[in-house]
C-alpha cells in the first residue's frame, strides 16, 4: 500500500450468507490476524447484518498497524465470525457452539507510515555547524497550520551546536538569529546550545519570537501496566543508528502507561482520545494495554509533526 493511493479502495470482502438463509437475523464480524498467530488475539471489526466490507488504502493501512509495524510486510489471514442476532444479544451465556466461522483467506500486506507534509510557512529549518550549515539537509521544526508554534527533536553530534532558524529551506528565505533574552529575530547571531552533544527538544514561537531547548537524556515508560509503582519506571534505549528512536522490551500487565522524558513530569506523551493510529500526544491519556505479556515498545520522534509509537506483543 502507498500513501499516494490513500483514498482509493484497497480491499473488499463479500461473503453472502455463509449457510442456508436464516430464519432470524445473523450478526457478523470480521477477524484479522497475522498468519503466524492463527487468530490467537485477532482484530475484530463488528459488521452487524452487512454481507460485505470494504476499506480504503488509508483505512486498511491504519487497521493493519495494529499487527504490522509501519513499513513492514506480513502474511494476514481473515475470516468471518457469525452468530444469530439473538445469540449476539446474549453474549455472556455463550458456550462456544453458537458461534461459527468461515474458512480463512490468506493475503500479504505491506503497510506504510502515514506522513503529514508541512508546507511553508508551517515549517522552519535549522542549519548549523553540526551539519555544515546546509539548509536543504537541515532538520525541521514544524507547526500545526496557522499556529506558528514550531517544534522538533534533534540529535546534535558535537559539543557546541550552533544554528539559525530559516522559515523555509533557502538562505534567501527569512533567516533569524539570537537577539537576546531567549528571543530570535533578523540580523541576530547564531543560536547556541549549552548542554553538550545529545538529543534535544527544540521549540520556537513566531507569535512571541522566543525559543527554547531541553536536553532529553532518557525516556521511561510509567504507569499501571508496570504495576503502578513509581519505582517500576523503566528506561528505554536509543537506537544506535538513530537517536530519535527509543525502544524497550518489557513485561506488562493489563493497564496503561505513558512515556516520560528524563523521568520527570515536564514532557509526558500519552495518546489523546479518541486514539488514532498510535500517535503520541503531550499530556494525554495513558496508552492502554489490554493483555498481559511481553512487549516490544518503540517511540519514534524522528519526523517532526509525525511522531509515532508502536507496541508489539511478543510470542510466549
Instruction: Report how far the terminal alpha carbons are from each other.
Output: 30 Å
Query: What's the CATH first level of the largest domain?
Result: Mainly Beta
CATH topology of the largest domain: Immunoglobulin-like
Into how many domains do the coordinates divide?
A: 3
Work out the number of β strands: 27
Short characterization:
The chain is mostly beta strands. The chain is 4% helix and 44% strand. The strands form eight sheets. Strands 18, 19, 22, 23, 24 and 25 form a six-stranded antiparallel beta sheet that branches.
Structure description:
The chain has helices at 57-64, 85-88; strands spanning 9-14, 26-34, 43-48, 52-56, 73-84, 100-101, 105-110, 123-125, 140-142, 149-156, 162-163, 165-167, 174-180, 183-185, 191-192, 198-205, 210-215, 219-222, 234-235, 237-239, 242-252, 255-261, 268-270, 281-282, 287-289, 293-300, 308-313. It has 316 residues and is mainly beta. The chain folds into three domains: 3-110, Immunoglobulin-like, CATH 2.60.40; 123-215, Immunoglobulin-like (Sandwich); 219-313, Immunoglobulin-like. Strands 18, 19, 22, 23, 24 and 25 form a six-stranded antiparallel β-sheet that branches. Strands 2, 3, 5, 6 and 7 form a five-stranded antiparallel β-sheet that branches. A four-stranded antiparallel β-sheet has the order 20-21-26-27, with no helix packed on it. Strand 16 (198-205) and strand 17 form a beta hairpin. The longest helix has 8 residues, at 57-64. The protein is elongated and about 80 Å long. The two termini are 30 Å apart. The mean pLDDT is 88.
Amino acid at each position: 500500500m502507498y500513501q499516494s493511493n490513500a483514498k482509493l479502495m484497497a480491499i473488499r470482502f463479500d461473503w453472502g450468507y455463509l449457510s442456508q438463509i436464516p430464519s432470524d437475523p445473523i450478526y457478523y464480524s470480521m477477524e484479522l490476524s497475522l498468519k503466524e498467530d492463527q487468530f490467537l488475539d485477532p482484530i475484530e471489526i463488528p459488521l452487524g447484518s452487512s454481507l460485505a466490507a470494504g476499506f480504503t488504502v488509508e483505512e486498511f493501512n491504519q487497521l493493519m498497524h495494529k499487527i504490522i509495524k509501519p513499513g513492514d510486510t506480513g502474511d494476514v489471514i481473515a475470516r468471518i465470525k457469525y452468530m444469530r442476532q439473538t445469540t449476539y444479544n446474549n453474549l455472556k451465556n455463550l458456550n462456544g457452539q453458537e458461534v461459527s466461522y468461515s474458512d480463512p483467506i490468506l493475503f500479504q500486506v505491506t503497510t506504510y507510515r502515514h506522513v503529514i507534509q508541512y508546507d511553508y510557512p508551517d515549517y522552519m529549518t535549522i542549519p548549523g555547524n553540526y551539519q555544515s550549515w546546509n539548509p536543504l539537509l537541515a532538520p525541521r521544526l514544524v507547526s500545526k497550520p496557522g499556529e506558528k508554534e514550531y517544534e522538533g527533536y534533534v540529535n546534535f553530534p558535537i559539543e557546541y551546536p550552533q544554528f539559525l532558524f530559516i522559515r523555509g529551506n533557502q538562505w534567501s528565505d527569512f533567516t533569524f538569529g539570537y537577539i537576546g533574552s531567549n528571543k530570535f529575530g533578523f540580523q541576530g547571531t547564531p543560536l547556541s546550545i549549552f548542554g553538550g552533544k545529545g538529543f534535544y527538544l527544540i521549540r520556537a514561537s513566531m507569535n512571541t519570537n522566543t525559543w527554547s531547548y531541553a536536553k532529553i537524556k532518557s525516556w521511561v515508560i510509567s504507569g499501571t501496566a508496570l504495576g503502578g509503582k513509581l519505582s517500576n519506571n523503566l528506561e528505554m534505549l536509543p537506537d544506535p543508528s538513530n537517536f530519535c528512536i527509543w525502544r524497550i522490551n518489557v513485561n506488562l500487565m493489563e493497564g496503561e502507561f505513558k512515556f516520560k522524558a528524563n523521568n520527570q513530569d515536564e514532557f509526558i506523551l500519552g495518546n489523546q482520545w479518541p486514539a488514532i493510529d498510535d500517535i503520541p500526544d503531550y499530556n494525554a491519556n495513558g496508552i492502554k494495554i489490554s493483555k498481559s505479556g511481553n512487549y516490544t515498545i518503540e517511540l519514534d520522534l524522528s519526523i517532526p509533526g509525525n511522531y509515532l509509537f508502536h507496541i508489539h506483543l511478543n510470542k510466549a
